[in-house]
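Why run this: before we spend reagent on co-expression, it is cheaper to look at a predicted model of the complex and decide which construct boundaries make sense. The entries below are exactly what would go into the expression plan.
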Amino acid sequence: MAVLRLGDTAPDFTAETTQGTLNFYDFLGDHWGILFSHPADFTPVCTTELGTAAKFKDEFDRRKVKVIALSVDPLDSHQAWLQDIAETQDTEVNFPIIADADRKVSDLYDMIHPKANDTLTVRSVFIIGPDKKIKLILTYPASTGRNFYELLRVIDSLQLTAYHKVATPANWEHGQKVVVSPAIPTPEAHTLFGDQVEELKPYLRLTPDPTA
Ligand code: BEZ
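The model came back. Tokens follow.
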């Protein structure tokens, strides 16, 4: 199994899910994608994560992001678990969960880290661009639930920096000042972004969020 790194093409697969058998690339279409793994069904942290991701549907839709989860338990287990999630999280899960009982997708994406656990996946997150390239990889241990506000924040940054010659500073959120890409000389920054460019250092130039 090859190690996946940023910029690699996200491996395609066909898998059984709670919304039927699907091909990953067909599912993504020309959207951005989030593929995230769960250690096991009927576990407390995963239950809250799936409910939270479902409640963020409007935010993901606004950003043209398709969401798909994975757990190594079989489909009948996932279907039963969906009922518990609806009951306890006050929302229906509105995206597919892959039933990866044969570990095919988990292995493809290196989601099982044997020194953490021999059989269960860690909490992996892959953000994939419309070009099917991997833009972000996060790995959390089973004991730590993910922060979905952070996933939205990072998608905002990925989408902004994909289309504008800027980068986003520490703790940046949509609408706040951004930094001019280091490769852009300051005179060009003024041409691109106007007279609001602030040069704190030749390598540290701030400018308003061009999408705000
Ligand atoms: C959970 O999702 O709650 C969980 C799963 C595996 C280990 C610890 C917690």
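The mean pLDDT is 97. The first helix runs from residue 24 to 28. Bring this page to Monday's planning discussion.
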